[in-house]
Amino acid sequence: MTQFTRRDSSHLARMTDQFRRERALARADVDHVFEKWFGDLCPGWLEALDARDDPRWTEDQFDRFILAVDAHLPFRDALVLSALDTMSLEDMEEAVTHPFSERAAEITVTRTWEYLNNPYCVPDLDRTAFAVSIIRTASSAISESPSVGFYSMEAYLCWWMGRLTESEAANEKAIQLSEDYPLARIMRNTYTRGLVPAWLRRQIIEHAGQEGEEVR
Q1: Which domain holds residue 49?
Q2: Is the pLDDT of residue 167 over 60?
Q3: Residue 3 falls within a domain, yes or no?
Q4: Angle, nearest 10°, between helix axes 89-97 and 30-38?
Q5: pLDDT tens profile 110-159
Q6: What is the pTM (predicted TM-score) of this model?
């Protein structure tokens, strides 16, 4: 990934300040700001996941990708949902650029509920693993100023894949950066309670049942 070279943390900080100023000034037209800053990132991300290839972003787009993970949580959430399974460009753009719309809420809630509650809804593990590889590579480009958003997103996706040890390790890095980061706290509680994804829980139960049959 040629564009994933080490980034200038001071430049990223200035970009973040500029985004937050524009968001604060926009008020009622905040969706326009989201579209300006993040709308063009969605095609590159989805194309990369679909093709299992590097995102074809410019330097500026990569910087805005890094910025968005921490500064615009709907973007982070859309990255997660699109990593678990295919997602249309229209749905991702809606979730990212119009996060307060009824349709965006429906997209997020419906997909999340299905994964949380349907034991037969298994993520596309290869797709999710590739998304994690992008996230890790991007995170290494900002190692001088680590991102709690990247670490917690890595932890969340690893959990969905059933890679629980990797998930906890990534989340510990997130907690060290910010104990109050909501997703990191959610994940820590998840480990404490011994929760696993619905699809993995089903497999564990089925495996235990098969072992019981063999004993009898």
Answers
A1: 9-215
A2: yes
A3: no
A4: 130
A5: 988 988 899 999 999 999 999 999 999 888 888 777 889 999 999 999 99
A6: 0.89
Determine what percent of the chain falls in helix, strand and coil, rounding each to the nearest 5: 75, 0, 25
Question: Would residue 4 count as lying in a domain?
Answer: no
Pair 35, 99: CB distance under 8 Å: no
**Looking at the domain assignment, is residue 158 inside a domain?**
yes
Contact between 30 and 37 (Cβ < 8 Å): no
Instruction: State how far the Cα of 57 lies from the Cα of 3, in Å rounded to an integer.
Output: 7
Q: Is the separation of the CB atoms in 80 and 153 below 8 Å?
A: yes
Mean pLDDT in residue range 53-60: 90
Q: What is the pLDDT of residue 209?
A: 72
H-helix or E-strand containing 137? helix 125-140
**Does residue 97 lie within any of the structural domains?**
yes
Q: Residue 137: count other Cβ atoms within 10 Å of its Cβ.
A: 13
Inform me whether the pLDDT recorded for 212 exceeds 70: no
Phi-psi region of 169 (alpha: psi -120 to 50; beta: other; left: phi over 0): alpha
- The CA distance from 135 to 15, in Å, is 20
Give the torsion sign (CA, 182, 15, 39, 28): positive
Do the beta carbons of residue 89 and residue 107 sit within 8 Å?
Answer: no
Domain count, the chain: 1
